[in-house]
Amino acid sequence: MVLSYIGWRVYWFRCDGPVHFWFKFTHIIPNIAYRMPTSATLFRHLFVYGTLLSASKHPMAEFLRQNSKLVGPGFFPGRLYDLGTYPAAVYDPEAAGFVHGELYFFPEPDPDYQTRLQTLDDYEGDEYDRIVVPIQTTDGFVLCWTYVFNQPTDSWPRISSGRFFG
């Protein structure tokens, strides 16, 4: 995945607590991890792909619509699985397919931003981790929070289109 404003290919990306992020670049200096200081509140975008989509009638989707602004569509490389009434996404920069969804933005200033994220974290539960993922949009890449599945996916059917219509 090429980050247009940096121009390097990110091999992997993970959050190391609230103040540091680790990047591993494959084309500039192979096998070197870089630490980038940042703030946990720097990322004010959230990417959703399931029950939180704007068309959803789920109460948490309504919560998201009331507390943020819909930006538009986006996608990331990975796989989407059907867990029945909701989907599960796995971020994989080497995947041939994509997970499609929508970006939301939490406007500033918002003193309740962390509380709103915690409400969403509680809704997603222990099956999901909130991580920062580069999302492709019509205007380029945006680093967004998104919820990725942290359980084995072997027994779940894959949604080959990468789109959840629940």
From TrEMBL:
**Which parts of the sequence belong to the Gamma-glutamylcyclotransferase AIG2-like domain?**
46-163
Which UniProt key words apply to this protein?
Transferase
GO MF annotations, alphabetized: transferase activity
Report if keyword NADP is assigned: no
Its domain of life? Answer: Bacteria
Q: Which InterPro entries match?
A: AIG2-like_dom (IPR009288), GGCT-like (IPR013024), GGCT-like_sf (IPR036568)
Q: What is this protein called?
A: Gamma-glutamylcyclotransferase
Species per Swiss-Prot/TrEMBL record? Larkinella terrae
